[in-house]
Structure formats: structure tokens, C-alpha cells
Amino acid sequence: MVVAFTSLEDFLRNRSAELLDHISRTVVQFSTLPKSLQSSATIGAFRSTILQASLASKVGGDPVALVQKVAEAVASTGTGALQLSHYTFGYSGSNVTADEVSSIMGALHIADPWGEMSDLAARCGFGGFPLRQAYETLQRNRNNAAHDVRASIQPSDLTSFSNDALAIAMSFDLLASRAARLLNEGDVNFLSGKTKLQASIGLRFINLTGGKFSEKKEGSGRAVKVSDNIDVAWKLAISRAVSSREAVVRRNAMGVPVDWRSTDVQ
Question: Does the global pTM surpass 0.85?
């Protein structure tokens, strides 16, 4: 359970870093970006770096080099080519908490982060359950397993973890990627205030039906294309989704998502 939750945290941190790189290539000035993002990329990055530098020094790392690298990124917010530090998001503590996920999404100008994630996950096929509560349960189980050697983890717990973790990772990625693209493009309406985004994200599904892969748009009963090969189905669906910035979601025979792709930031 410890390794499993760490994998989810790593995904959230790594995907956030990729999106920060994308936002760094924005067409607008740093001072035009959301105030909460400006704060996270400067003050927040330095605060996180102090903690991470302390942890690095305990395991033989080079804390000075780490601080210098982050200092260069923070300096770029004032002059030169912008390069947002990867320590902007996800490193304020030893673990990524539910509150930190909210802060990341809020800094990206997404309103009602966990509510939006839950609604988007339900549209994808995960069912209507609150993802914040699921995340907090996963983290609590992780902590119990880490600190109590007698903690009992059942096979059903791992199955539930896999489903909940995938729902969290997918909804986070699709929403954060949409926000990162809008920030990169300097979308005036989006920059004007926090926005609920999930309803604007179109979905294109690849469903496993009768041993074949059926491509359908959300809300449509008719297949756009039926393929025998998943690789072919995947490539065709993505090529059709790009122009309208739809997300592509692959689902198993039970209608449960097993993979996805954002066309906002790939």
C-alpha cells in the first residue's frame, strides 16, 4: 500500500512538473498569470526547497545545488526566459495531501477542484463517488501500513485502491492539462478568474465490446469506428480528438476506464 500510494503521489508531482514546463512557454508575462500561481512559483517554491534540501542532506544529496537550481527558476519569473520550478507544486511536505492537490488546482485557476474531479471521473465511467474522500482514505491506509506492521491489507483493498487512484490521476490530469493549455495560450476569459472546466472537456471513448474496440463520442450511441487492434483504435481516436481538444478514454468490457490521453498537453 505504501508503494502504491507513493506511485500516485509521484504521478501527481511528475505530471505537474510537465505542465509547469508547458506554462513556462506562455505568451503572457509572469505578472499576468494567476496570483496564486505566482505565489506558488516563488515563495512556495522556496519554502518547499528548504524542506526538500533538508531531506536531501540526510541521504547524501547536495542541498546547495538544489537551492541554486530553484533560485535560478525563481529569478526567471522577473527577467529572462520563464522557467517555473518543478518545486512549485507537490513538495510542501513529505506527502502530497488532499489540501495540496486542491492548492495545485486552485493555482491553475480551477474552481472547486475536488468537485470538478469527481464529476469528470463520473462522466468517464468511474461512478459518482467523492474523490477527495477517496484520496484521504488512500492516504490514511498508506500511513497505517507504513507505521503499523500489523496493519492488514486485503486483496479487495488493493483492487479498490487501483480503481480510486486511476480515477484521481485521470481527472487531475485532464483538468490540469486543460488549465495549463489555457494559461499557456493566455486565454483572457480563463485568466479573469477561477473557472469550472470539466463540463468543457469533451470525451471520446474506446470501449471493449465483443472483443473489438469501438470508438464513440460521449452521449452518442453510434460508433465512429470499430477496430480489431487497440493500437490502431487508439491512434485513430487521438487523431480525431485533437482538433476539438477532446480527451480519449479507453474502457474495459465493464465500462471502467483503464487508460486515457489528454489532447490539451500531451
Answer: yes
